[in-house]
Design a protein that fits this description.
alpha+beta; Gyrase A, domain 2
Length: 104
């Protein structure tokens, strides 16, 4: 397993992942939904993506919001494995873009 990504490389990668940020050694993304049903659809989709990659995010789930946190625990930081899962999540979110309410 490779180690954590250097800070500069992480900043460059995050610049290509809208909505993601680094926070305390984690990659973090918040997704706001319209309804509880959409929230559960999102969580189930995230679970499927994570299982397919054998890499599991920490999730905080509330009525209309899911906070996704990625870190490779064994490596002690953010690794390429986290970036791969974040990219897969971004691609999936684009396909189900009606989950997030549009800004007025």
């Amino acid at each position: 397993m490779s180690g954590p990504i250097p800070s500069e490389a992480l900043r460059e990668a995050l610049a290509t992942l809208p909505g993601w940020r680094e926070e305390g050694g984690w990659m973090v993304r918040e997704v706001t939904t319209r309804h509880w049903r959409d929230t559960m659809f999102l969580v189930n989709g995230l679970a499927s993506l994570a299982e397919a990659q054998h890499h599991h995010p920490d999730l905080a789930i509330s009525y209309r919001k899911v906070v996704i946190r990625l870190q490779t625990h064994d490596a002690g930081g953010i690794t390429e494995k986290d970036l791969r899962l974040a990219r897969a999540i971004q691609d999936w979110l684009k396909r189900v873009s009606d989950l997030e309410p549009q800004e007025a």
